[in-house]
């Protein structure tokens, strides 16, 4: 007989500990630098069946990459290291909207603490 599995769904009673609302709301043209930063990962092939991961942070005002880092692991450390580069480079004084795809690396406790 053909078997199927059903993914269990768990309901949490805990309130979220960070804002995951879409604060950007498709407003992709901030009117000054360091108002909105956005980030994502991509992979880069470096040979047969070999690749590395790139984490980049862009300032949406200029559309320029303000920080990037490459690693052989796509993990919270890569996200944190890249964010630290951006913070050290830009030294923001005002709050910033930080937009991501809400992948697990960006939801990690270490990344949220850094934010």
Q: Please, what is the CATH homologous superfamily of the domain at 36-114? A: Ribonuclease H-like superfamily/Ribonuclease H
- DSSP E strands, number: 4
CATH hierarchy: architecture of the domain at 36-114 = 2-Layer Sandwich
What's the oligomerization state? single chain
CATH topology description of the domain at 36-114: Nucleotidyltransferase, domain 5
Q: Treating each run of at least 4 consecutive H or I residues as one helix, how many helices?
A: 3
Helix and strand topology:
Layout: E1 36-47, E2 50-59, E3 64-71, H1 76-90, E4 97-99, H2 104-107, H3 109-114
Parallel strand pairs: 1-4
Antiparallel strand pairs: 1-2, 2-3
Features of the shown structure:
3 helices, four-stranded mixed sheet, alpha+beta, Nucleotidyltransferase, domain 5, 115 residues, 29% strand
